[in-house]
C-alpha cells in the first residue's frame, strides 16, 4: 500500500452553489484552513461553471491518497454541519448523498465483472452506491456521476474503496489536468445551439421546442445579463436555450419586470430558467446586504 499512498491522486464531486460558499468560507478562510489541515489541494469550479445538466459546482481535491481522504472528510463534515444548523437536530447522523464525478472509462473498474466490485463496496461500506447511466445528451462528454448515500462514515469508506480502485487506473490520472473543462463549445454545434436561429431545427432527436417567458425585476436584470451580456451568453451556451431580454421599459403587463423569453427543448429551458433564477436570488441577496 505504501507506494500508492505516496502517489498523487484526485477526486471530483458536486456541490450546490450555496454549499460551495460554506466550503470556501469568508475570504477563502475555510478552504485555506482545510488545505493546510489535510495537505491536499482543494479547487472549485468558478461561480457559474456548472456540471452539465445541473446547477452544481465541481470541487476537485488532489494530493496523496491519505491527504485527499482527509480533505474530503473535512469538506463533507462541513457540509453536514451546515445541514445540522439548518435542521437543528443532533439525534442521529443524517443520511446524505455525495455525487462523485468519474470518467466513463474508469466506471468499469468500479462496477467489476457482473457488478461484483460495486456489490462488495456496498457491503463493505454500507453506503448506497449508484452509477448514473452514460449521458449521451452532451457531445464529447465522458463523465458519469457516482452517487453515494449514507452517513458520513459509510460515505467515507465508500470513497476510500472507490478512490483506491481509481488510483490503480492509469487512464484516471490523465483527466486530472482538466477538472472543469466541460465542452461548453460543443453546445453551439448542436442544431439548437444559442447561435442557431429558431426555425432551422431539423434532424434533431429532440424536435420538441417550447418557449416560456418569465419576469425579472428591472433592478436585477443587470446581473442576469452581465457585463456586455456575458452572463446571459454563458447561460445560453451551458443550457443550449435561446434567451431574449425585452428592451428597457418593455415590461410584463402590470409590473416593472422585464420579459425574459427562453426557447429551446424543454430540458434546455429548465436549465436556463434555474440558472437565471439563481442569478436573481443572488442579486436579491446582495440587495439585502
Please, could you describe this protein's structure?
With 289 residues, the chain is α+β, with helices and mostly antiparallel strands. The protein has two domains: 9-83 and 93-175, TATA-Binding Protein, CATH 3.30.310; 210-287, Ribosomal Protein S8, Chain: A, domain 1 (2-Layer Sandwich). 45% of the residues lie in helices and 21% in strands. It is built from twelve helices and nine strands. It has helices spanning 2-6, 17-24, 29-38, 65-87, 104-111, 116-125, 152-167, 170-174, 184-189, 221-225, 230-239, 266-288; strands at 8-16, 41-44, 56-64, 96-103, 128-131, 143-150, 210-217, 242-245, 257-264. Strands 2-3-1-4-6-5 form a six-stranded antiparallel β-sheet. Helix 3 crosses helix 4. The chain is globular and about 60 Å long. The termini are far apart. Residues 183-207 have low confidence and may be disordered.
List keywords for this structure.
alpha+beta, TATA-Binding Protein, Ribosomal Protein S8, Chain: A, domain 1, six-stranded antiparallel β-sheet, three-stranded antiparallel β-sheet, 12 helices, 21% strand, KH_dom
Number of domains: 2
Specify Rg, calculated over alpha carbons: 21 Å
Q: What is the molecular shape?
A: globular
Assigned CATH architecture of the largest domain: 2-Layer Sandwich
Distance between the termini: 51 Å
Helix count, DSSP H or I runs of 4 or more residues = 12
Beta content: 15-25%
Q: Would you tell me the structural class of the helices and strands? A: alpha+beta
Strand order of the largest sheet: 2-3-1-4-6-5
CATH topology of the largest domain: TATA-Binding Protein
Q: Main beta sheet: strand number and arrangement?
A: 6 strands, antiparallel
Overall pLDDT score = 80
The portion of residues assigned to helices is: 40-55%
Secondary structure tally: strands: 9
SSE string: HEHHEEHEHHEEHHHEHHEEH
Low-confidence stretches are 183-207
Assigned CATH class of the largest domain: Alpha Beta
Amino acid at each position: 500500500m505504501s507506494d500508492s499512498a505516496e502517489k498523487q491522486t484526485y477526486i471530483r464531486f458536486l456541490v450546490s452553489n450555496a454549499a460551495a460558499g460554506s466550503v470556501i468560507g469568508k475570504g477563502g478562510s475555510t478552504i485555506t484552513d482545510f488545505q493546510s489541515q489535510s495537505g491536499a489541494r482543494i479547487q472549485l469550479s468558478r461561480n457559474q461553471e456548472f456540471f452539465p445538466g445541473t446547477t452544481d459546482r465541481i470541487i476537485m481535491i488532489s494530493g496523496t491518497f491519505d491527504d485527499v481522504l482527509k480533505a474530503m472528510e473535512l469538506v463533507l463534515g462541513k457540509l453536514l454541519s451546515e445541514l445540522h444548523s439548518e435542521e437543528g437536530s443532533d439525534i442521529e447522523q443524517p443520511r446524505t448523498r455525495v455525487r462523485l464525478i468519474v470518467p466513463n472509462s474508469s466506471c468499469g473498474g468500479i462496477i467489476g465483472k457482473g457488478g461484483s466490485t460495486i456489490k462488495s463496496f456496498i457491503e463493505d461500506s454500507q453506503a448506497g452506491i449508484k452509477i448514473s447511466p452514460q449521458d449521451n445528451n452532451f457531445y464529447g462528454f465522458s463523465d458519469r456521476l457516482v452517487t453515494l448515500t449514507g452517513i458520513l462514515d459509510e460515505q467515507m469508506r465508500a470513497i476510500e474503496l472507490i478512490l483506491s480502485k481509481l488510483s490503480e487506473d492509469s487512464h484516471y490520472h490523465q483527466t486530472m489536468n482538466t477538472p472543469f473543462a466541460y465542452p461548453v463549445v460543443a453546445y453551439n454545434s448542436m442544431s439548437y445551439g444559442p447561435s442557431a436561429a429558431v426555425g432551422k431545427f431539423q434532424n434533431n432527436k429532440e424536435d420538441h421546442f417550447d418557449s416560456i417567458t418569465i419576469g425579472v425585476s428591472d433592478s436585477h436584470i443587470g446581473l442576469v445579463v452581465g457585463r456586455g451580456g456575458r452572463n446571459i451568453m454563458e447561460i445560453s451556451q451551458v443550457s443550449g436555450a435561446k434567451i431574449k431580454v425585452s428592451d428597457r421599459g418593455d415590461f410584463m403587463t402590470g409590473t416593472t419586470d422585464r420579459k425574459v423569453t427562453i426557447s429551446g427543448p424543454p430540458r434546455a429551458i429548465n436549465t436556463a430558467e434555474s440558472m437565471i433564477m439563481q442569478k436573481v436570488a443572488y442579486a436579491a441577496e446582495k440587495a439585502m446586504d
